[in-house]
Each structure stands twice: as structure tokens, then as C-alpha cells.
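Continuing the batch. This is chain 6 of the set; chains 1 through 5 are on the previous pages. Same settings as before, nothing changed between runs. Recording input and output for traceability.
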Amino acid sequence: MGKLRIIICALAFVLVASVAMAEDYTVSVSQIVEHPALDATRQGFMDYLEEQGLDVKYNVHIAQGNIATANQIANQIMDEDPDLVLAIATPTAQACAQRIHETPVIATAVTDFVGAGLVKSMDKPGSNVTGMTDMTPMDKHLDLMLEFVPDATAVGVIYNAGEDNSVTLVKFLRDACEAKGVKLEEATIQNSSGVLQAARSLVGKVQAIYIPTDNTVVTALESAMKVAHENHIPLFSGDTDSVERGTLASLGFDYYNMGRQTGEMAFRILKEGANPADMPVETLQDLSLWVNKDAAEKMGVTIPEAVLDRADTVLE
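Output for chain 6:
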């Protein structure tokens, strides 16, 4: 009987110890809207932490493209008291950063961390916010467009002027166009329902249309594609996920890999005690060139051989 008590006590000790060793974490996610690029980012983040053996409970919130909703979500996250906050895209990152000051906030798929008021500097954030930027090289994107349409005198861009990330990107695109002597026609929208009319307003004015990593426009990408097909205007995008949906080409980031790298940053905070204030904002180093042959046919465009030769992904 004494031996039995010893065995039972030993088993109880092992059970208690194993429970104590199992570290559970709660991560609250605020995402501005659902579309393939942002969804891939979130999935990459989750997959990385799962592969590292972390047991994580996720509270996922989607703001449906509404800034007021993003603010409400940030308030709700404060009540959830998570171990870490994942903010996907600029508007939700701003909403969380303005309200959450103690819990670590990792923002990802954000274009301009400094311009959006999220960090003091890219190298030394200085607060509880850090993350990953998806700032795209607009000069290289313009060069890609001009490879397809070398005689272009004007290109168009559709964006939501209420998204700080888009305003920053269009500024850089404007500078790139000026340097190349190309006119930039800007069509701004306030919500996704305006994308169709914005695209139509560019017909007859431009030889190519560019969709930046604008969450509002990407949500209604099919509206812009409809105009591109009907009028044989090449439609380019800032993210490669949109090429899968039907844009002609992009020189962009793999957002799933961006999510994984963001997850690695979260791992350092949760498991290693890293301080976001001292963690530089990171970026993916490799850009991928994607082209879509079916989209080219629908838009009446011939893909240059030089582009096909160096493309990382060619969709049929």
C-alpha cells in the first residue's frame, strides 16, 4: 500500500509538472479586411508559431474595412488582455497603437511605420510596437509597367486617400513617374464600391493602371479587372496574390512568408522576452516577379520574353 501511494504521488507530480510546463498564450488579431494577401499573412504567422510548438489561442477580429470598427476592435482587445497583439495592415495597426500601450503589438503588412506614427524610427521603435513593412519599390514597379507598354505616356492609379499607406505609395509612384517623364492620373475612392467608377474614369487617359497594396481597392479588385478586360488596358498590382486573382503582373512580396517572419518576431517576444522597443522593423529581402498569361490574353497584352525569362511564377 505504501508503494502504491508513492507511485500515485509520483504520477501526480509528473502530471502537475507537465501542466506547468505547457505554456499557453493568447494572441489577439486585428485585421482591417479579408483579402488573400492579408489572409496569407495571418496564416503564415499562425503556422510558424504552431511549428515552434507554441500553444496559442487566437482572438481574430476583422474590421471589414471600417476605421471606426478597427477602433472598436482595439478597445475590445484591451479587455481581452492578450499576451501579444497582431495588427495586420496600417489602419488596424494605428488603431491598436493609439490605445494599447502595455501589451506588445506586432504590426505587419504596414507600408510606412514612421509616417503612420507607429514607431519613432525603423531601427529603434521606442515603444511597444514593432513589426514588418511591405513598402514596395515604386520605381521598379513603374519600370515593370513600362516593359509591357514602352510607349506609355500616362499610367493610372486607383487608391483610397484615407489609407496612409496608399498615400505614401502614390507619392513615391508620383516621384518615379516624374523622373521618367510619365504622367500619373490618380483616381481616388472612399470605399470599395467606388472602384468600378474609378477604373472607368481612367479609360482613354492612360495606357496602364496600377493597384497599390491598398486594402480598400484590393477588396474590389474584380471591378478594376472588368474595366481592364473590356478596354484592353494592362492592370498591374502591388502584391503577387492579386496576380493569382487576375492582374497582369507584380513585383511583390510573398505575404505568407511575411506572416511567417512576423511570427518569428512574435516568438522572440513570447519565448525569449525580447522588447519590441528594441526590435528593428523588418522587411522581406526578396521580391518575386509574377505574371499571369490568362490575364494578358484578356487584356490584349503580349508579355515580353525578357519578363517571362526572369519571372519567378508564371500563371497560365
